[in-house]
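User: These chains co-purify. Model them together.
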Amino acid sequence: MITLSLERKQSLGFQFLLEEMQPNCIYGQELVKNAAPYTRDEGEALEQELNRLSLLVKGYEEHRSFWDSVELVLMQMKEVRGSLKRGAEVVLTDLELFELKHFLLQWEKLFALLKREDAVLLPGIAIEDTVGALDLLDPEKRRLPGFYIFDCYAEDLKQVRDEKRHLEVVLRQEHEEEKRELLLRRRQEAVGQEEEIQQRIRGEITEKLRPYLAQISANCRAVGQLDFLLQKAKLARVYGGICPQLTEAELKLAELRHPQMEQQLKKKDKCFTPISFEMRPGTSVITGANMGGKSVALRTLALNVVLAQSGFFVYAKEARVPLFDDICIVAEEYQSMQNGLSSFGGEIMQLQHAIQAQKQGFCLLIFDELARGTNPDEGASIVRAVVRYLKERSVIAIFATHYDHVAEFADSHYQVRGLSQVDLPQLEQEIRSAQGQKGIDVIAKYMNYGIYQVHEKEECPRDAIHICGLLGLEAELMDLILQEEENESGLCSA
Amino acid sequence: MERDLFVKLMAGHDSVSLAGMCKNAGKTTVLNRLLQELGEAQLSVGLTSIGRDGETVDVATGTKKPQIYVREGSLFATASGLLQNCDVTGEILALSGMHTPLGEVVLLRAKSDGFIDLAGPSMNLQLAKLSRWFLQQGVDKSLIDGAISRKSLCSRRVADAVILCTGASYHRNMATVIADTAYISRLLQLKRGADEKTVRRIEQWRQSRPQSQRLLFVDEDGNGKEPTEQRLADVLRDKQYQDCPYLWMEGALTDAMLKPMLFSNIDCKGRTFIVEDSSKLLLGQDTFEKLEKKGVHLTVLEEICLLAVTINPFSAYGNHFDQGEFLQRMREAVSLPVLDVLH
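Assistant: Joint model of the two components:
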């Protein structure tokens, strides 16, 4: 099972989407809160969920008013699972019976809607007719929301109440204190008898409800599923998702997007550059400039894989996604600092977890600049070793790295376009006229965040020093950096 | 006492609340009396309370005993935890979504006569919502059993009218009971003192009031002026507001806010102070009277109608008052119907 902590959901941008959802009832709210990837064994159930979601999304606009009325009923559905549980063991109170009746009344409306001839059927969501249970709580079949132990439940109840009513009518007219006391005492006795009978009837009703409890529980689940599906469908409509196709091992995602980042960029009047991946089991390396969006590419990939496997639409033009036993992301994160580990220590713990996970099954492993915090020689050795270790294993592993000579060990190599196609003098000109801090924004504007697959051996690009220069780093320091760089390449070639 | 006195007093008021000066002021007796009169007049009732009235343990037996007796057909709203104390046959109509320490407030209809135990919400907005719900369901009168505290005098937002209950349990000295009751009843009878123009200006201003701004002067022509200072003594001395007879005060008006001004030589003659309603006045009698002597006209935006004062000459602490004397002296002190609950 793949468990996602809240922090992980947040850093992926999954939590952002979950918070966009507005489930109508507690049952839907719970499913949204606990949204997580299906396991590999649940492929069929996932397939079914995606199928339902496709049906729903396709027919949503056409049946808009139908789904609006479904949502109106869902909004009325309150929590009853506590009462269902108690009902299996003890006699329910009037308040619990009232809540149950309320739920059953709403369920009857929902059931009628879903069973309508022209209603969009959602395969695999089992719904049960519980009219028998409702009739128990609505013996007069008036389908009004109120509940008490109705007179018609038992003849002796009606009798006691009639007697009591008679006393109460007399009491209304009686103003003499002594006689009132006497009447009140007699009334008190009648109240006692009434309560005894009521309790007996509550017991009988609870007993008769018991055979329905499992069905009602199942209906609660169905209500949640339906609510969750409706929210997923709305999300897919708002951000333009498509239904992923599940594959055995192939991972192909064309023009992937990340809704949360897209929205953040939109606020700054910028666009998100869609990213495409195509990979088979094995290792891939992404190299590219600083500021080139390697981390963004990895987060976008991870988010969409998690979405697909959790039964959501994905944000892509085309999506073919396999089911993974685990999805591990190894990245320097705030979280490890909180746990008191150094960032490097935290990364290595995550690495160890990922290595163990891939022994158990087919995994997606994502490494965002592994070992970035340590010295480059050792760091590069670690990354190269991990790439070599994972080759030929049952994984899809992706590494974003700055280190040289990593890509050559991997099965495929991607490169961020970065500044490679930019007219540098023009860029410099623009930065100079923009002045100061804005340099970063200008570079971001020219930066091509797209990635492409590299088929021949290619060196890591040298955009880092370009960027230093473009950002107007102190001239004397720049000279030294260039000197160092020359020495370094001299050493290498020697 | 006439059998339909309360019904007559309540004519023209949809919602009425009961406020007590102290415990054992006879509030429950008055409420039951009201319920009986309304029942006999064939008027239907919706009933809730402000929070939980502490008075349910029977002193003699030490057992819990609900004391409010309603007629069949009455609506009531009480916390789910108290349903077991109600001996009326009660149909649950809805859940309010309002929560109290004793559970969610449940809305019920009495299917028989009987005793109920009340604990409603304590927020004005929620009480107002319940009261509206009762009236929407078609009851003739919505009654709110108020809290025992002078500081939470019923707000106009909750009910149109109020009945003030007082008695010998308030203080062992009859003169004190009478003076304090008379003072509270004066606060509750404060009138709307500003003309339409001024009221409109104040209401407009309140909708877009800056958080820190609590005061607003209004001149004869209905123009508002926001003082930059918020201290009363400073702004009242300021010449630029001399031509503004009205001063609106947002929120509560307390002794501490008035003292510096009262002990100064500022001329306040002819000024009209306006607060939202009587519940916003947290003033001792002494301050109130000094303000009057300074020539300040204290008014409210929302009048509440004080219908009557009821008295209970019996004290829970043993020092009972003479019924006749108490009634007569209270009548002299209060310009309203005064009713003895035991008659």
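The longest strand of chain A covers residues 412-418.
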